Amino acid sequence: MTSAPRASSSRPRRVAVVGVALADCGRVDDATPYALHAQAARRALADSGLDRSVVDGFASAGLGALAPVEVAEYLGLRPTWIDSTAVGGATWEVMAAHAADAVAAGRARAVLLVYGSTARADIRAGRRTSNLSFGARGPLQFEVPYGHSLIAKYAMAARRHMHQYGTTLEQLAEVAVTARANAAANPEAMFREPVTVDEVLAGPMIADPFTKLHCCVRSDGGCAVLLAAEEYVPDTAKAPVWVLGTGEHTSHATMSEWEDFTVSPAAVSGRLAFERAGVGPADVDLAEIYDAFTYMTLVTLEDLGFCAKGEGGAFVEKGRTGLRGELPVNTDGGGLSACHPGMRGLFLLVEAVRQLRGEAGARQVRKAGDRLPELAVASGTGGWFCSSGTVVLGRG
After folding, report:
1. 57 has which bridge partners?
2. SS3 of 192, please?
3. Which residue intervals define the domain Thiolase C-terminal in the entry (predicted)?
């Protein structure tokens, strides 16, 4: 294996996503998480057309005691650059930012990001159970006695937005309705049957104001993304999708330290990503946003600048975020309908790349004149709005 080419003294190397893939997703009862990692990795490498010997960087989180070490060994990789950053759902956008920086600086040639989980199958088989909190040590010890589950924290934030800006239950339900409509065009989505606002509102209450359909599905699945330096792009099988700008931010660990329940850390990570990309929200053709709960989509749209603070409810009405809407959002159906095996952030990058390549089939977003989209943003949120990573991607 040759050493990584060094960045130019005049500018850093450009970095492209050159391979993406999903492992089997949805209901997968006969695979281990390691097997899903391997399946996704093989498919992403095949998608790129590059030889695995080019890969000298590896990033993984969520599996085993030493995720990048154990998973890399399982995949037969011996990376010289690794990342195990774990900040919840934002993990993969943050990892992509770190990987892009490493490749641009000449510290790696190509970095493989891989995730896999059998969250649904494990519950069914009794290998895991639900948990009330992430732990009872450190700052969280002051909240755990009050029984705050993760969903309860999101529900509290949603209620604050409703109180402060007049956001309605019907507007939150519109997010779930549009996600399901988008999923209907995705043959890989776990749930594709249409739902109505009334059906969302009539569902069993999980954490006020969230009924069942306000919440993400629980699925199995995995995916992988391969980033590479610009000099490898001529050898790839498909057109590159360039990493134009990234941003990351953390805002709080405990709810008592969160200054404003109506502002997510995407307000900072998004601003940084757009500034570094040299573009603005108005330039973006589609957005892939972490949606463990409907409120996440709504408030992240505000914080990324697609609408003013407090106007997210009105923005998501009337199909505006559907496949043929003003700003298509979560075009695969998102975590609310397509799949959600756990830390879903990597799936956002896969879908954004597929859309920019024109590989999304019936759910393909088109611009005026039947042109392919040129710019996409993927924004992941972690914990209970504790962290955010945002990546701006482009075809040019």
Report:
1. 81, 111
2. coil
3. 247-395
Asked if omega into 209 is within 30° of 0 (cis), the reply is yes
pLDDT tens, 346-367? 999 999 999 999 999 999 999 9
Residue 80 C-alpha from the chain's centroid: 26
Q: Where does the pLDDT of residue 142 fall: very low under 50, low under 70, confident under 90, or very high at 90 and above? A: confident
pTM score above 0.85: yes
The whole-angstrom separation of Cα 282 and Cα 175 is 21
* 189 contacts 183 by C-beta, under 8 angstroms: yes
Write out the two tokens for 89. Answer: 């759902």
Sign (positive or negative) of CA dihedral 250, 227, 281, 188 = negative
Length of the chain: 396
Residue 39 tokens read as 């399946």
In angstroms, the CA 106 to CA 57 distance is 11
- Smallest Cα–Cα separation from 253: which of 144, 389, 131, 390? 144
Helices (H), the chain: 33-48, 67-75, 91-104, 119-125, 150-165, 169-183, 197-202, 266-277, 294-303, 312-315, 334-337, 345-357
Question: Quick one: tokens of 65?
Answer: 């005691």
Q: Is 187 exposed, middle or buried (0-12, 13-18, 19+ CB in 10 A)?
A: exposed
> What sign does the dihedral 294-373-87-387 (CA atoms) show?
negative
Alpha-carbon distance of 189 to 337, in angstroms, equals 6
Residue identified by tokens 């699945």 is 221
Is the CB of residue 205 less than 8 Å from the CB of residue 211?
Answer: yes
What lies within 8 Å, CB to CB, of 141 at 6+ separation is none
Q: Which of 363, 386, 317 is nearest to 187 (CA)?
A: 363
pLDDT at res. 3: 45
Structure token digits, residue 112: 């493989």
- The residues that bridge with 212 in the sheet, in sequence order, are none
- What DSSP designation does 122 have? H
Residue 11 contacts by C-beta under 8 Å, 6 or more apart in sequence?
none
Phi and psi at residue 187, in whole multiples of 5°?
-65, -15
